[in-house]
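Take a specimen:
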Amino acid sequence: MNHTETLTRYTANFIDELANNGLTDAVISPGSRSTPLALTLAEHKQIKEWIIIDERSAAFYALGIAKKTMRPVALVCTSGTAAANYYPAIVEAFYSRVPLIILTADRPHELRDVGAPQAIAQLNLYGEYVKWFQEMALPESTPEMLLYARNKAARAFFMAKEGNCGPVHLNFPFREPLVVDFQLDNLWGDTCNTPYLPTYDGKKQLSPTQIDQMHEKLKQKKKGIIVCGPQTDPKLGEVVTKLAAKWQVPVLADPLSQVRSGEHAKDVVIDGYDAFLRNETIRELLKPEFIIRIGAMPVSKAYLFYVKQHKDILQFVVENDRGFREPAGNRTEFVFADSVLFCEHLTANTELKLDKDWLYEWQQTNQITKKHLLRKTNNQVTEGEAMRGLLDVIPDNSSIFVGNSMAVRDLDTFFLTTEKRIQVLANRGANGIDGVVSSGLGAASNGSRLTLVLGDLSFFHDMNGLHAAMHYKLDVTILLMNNNGGGIFSFLPQANDRKHFEALFGTPLNINFEHVVTMYGGRYFNPQTEKEVKEALLQSYANMGLSIIEVKTDREENAAWHREKWQAIEAELLKGGA
């Protein structure tokens, strides 16, 4: 058997086994050494290939697809620094528990560490940020080695999904020539319909004895809260609100929890806590006796202050598989169980006699807060008002991908409970501002309507990601909050350093983004009021393709507007005793 046939059969068996296990999407960046992988993925009828030229953008695009679909996505690039450009997205995938299968092509062993071009040390390139690494054998086409290729493909797919999802990395050394032959008989192998590693991987749940132990610890408590942090399970909203209604406790729902929107009952859901927990006195008045948190730590810094202020209380953190996400450093009991099953079991098997006025107190505080958040002004639109306008008009059954810094915090403040079914996604693993455009466009690649909300610095960091929207004609609305720099720093103590603030933290860009929109074939809007923001959004939703709505604001005025809201809330709550 010649080299080309060997290379073809080895690669085809590997790719076919990925498809057998459920791979449907692969993001490929062009390059020579990765030719066998790229061509074979493009040839396979069950796999959709996405061609993203820049590897850094490609990795975040794959991340967005995987976040949206909750399925592993393959990433393919050539050797050398191309693979290094994946690094930021892989870090994000690791911390946000997103399944990626990274397939890097490499020089064969004899061309390593000898000065060959485009050859870097790729073994364990991503260190501890991948769940599993495998240096693949040089291609062979014996039955044993074709089975080996399938074994590694099946295991890679399983490892990406197993437990806490995450990235896995396989490195492929290829010798030239690199072109494969798709005219071979039985191209995909004899076992193309038989996965080599079938698995039965069940969900974790507590035993009846463990449920009783939790109940024993809770039954003497009178005041408790359930907190839902960032998570992606769409079933959680219904079961957690049923549990909270039975116990008559509030549910503090993060905007990324998937609990603030949907058809489930929301009378126990508290959505304004970030605004009213900023005050120390209010935090003390609302001191609980226990906290049960599901999902990651909430976005809200006010909530972080709340738990730090009450280090003495009993706290449970629920993780679907494993992990110790408790940045406040409080004494915590960790529950490793599927969150939906956990809530169902507590609802069926526990009875608590809690303070009857406790939930009402939270609900009243929340209503007062929302009254102030929804109060209209006649001034030029602020970032908060633009976010509020978005949530008024966003279509049902659509998605928001939100950037970090101020964007996600304004979403936290103004994304109030709604019957609309709105999936909310973000890169909150490492909380970076890089790759947000590409991630959002990746999440839009399945054809459903998506609104990407981000600031000007995040937009600037990843403008070349817009090429995917043009190339694949994606239907995306981008709400661009342009405060000409890093707006979140205006809320931090650094803002008091007038000598260095603008250069080191404010970082004004002074860019006319309308030219960027034109370059990538999008529609551009520049509304001046909240009403105009809504009109621009509705027009964008009525059209196909890319629309960018730029809301220009002033950083200092924006910070003052937010503070006025918070102060008005505090004043009314403290006057009434919260």
Q: What stands out?
A: The mean pLDDT is 94. The CA atoms of residues 52 and 58 lie 5 Å apart. The domain at 213-370 is CATH 3.40.50.1220 (Rossmann fold). The chain has three domains: 3-173, 213-370, 376-567.
